[in-house]
Known about the structure:
single chain, alpha/beta, Rossmann fold, 7-stranded mixed beta sheet, globular
Amino acid sequence: MDSSHCTDPGAQQTYQSQGHEESIAEINTYKIGQGKSAIVLFTDIFGYSFINARKLADRFAEETGTTVLIPELFHGDPVNPNIPNYRESMPDWLKKHPISGACEIADKFLSTIKGHYQSIQIIGFCYGAKPVVYLITHAELSSTIKAAIVGHPSRLEKQEAEQIKRPILFLCTAHGFIVRPDGTPQVNEQSEKAVQDAIEYFKKNI
Length: 206
């Protein structure tokens, strides 16, 4: 990944998620909310079961009135920060889970849910930012997306900026600060501001 912060899970959080899991396009998916518009969240390397991601999805659903969906990108094999020396296995893990595979899943997922919601917005963090940019740089896919957000993105390329076809909000300071804040007051404050900015952006673009 682009920095050691990409593999840092941040301060441990305790939370009971409010949604449920279901299969969409044969992709395991976390779903929360009953809104007529949808937000699709693409995760970092810790995957769709990571409690921080589900906590964020629940908040987006509650404060925007949308349905929030988190598709599983890693075929049941996310990075597990509880395994000793897990960072040493990252090169092999990335070979098993190339970003192209996540983009293919994002393509399949969006192609399946389009038409089921009045509008669709997307958001991605770190590893998950790349599928977001992939979706909004391809004409046949971007037409289904109202707007997009990326938070502390990684693996983006300069030339992709010229190909972006939908409105996009970049949330960038310390890497991982939104989904995986380190628990310090300054980072927690930055994280909360970014979440609020995302919520207001979503509400504006529903």
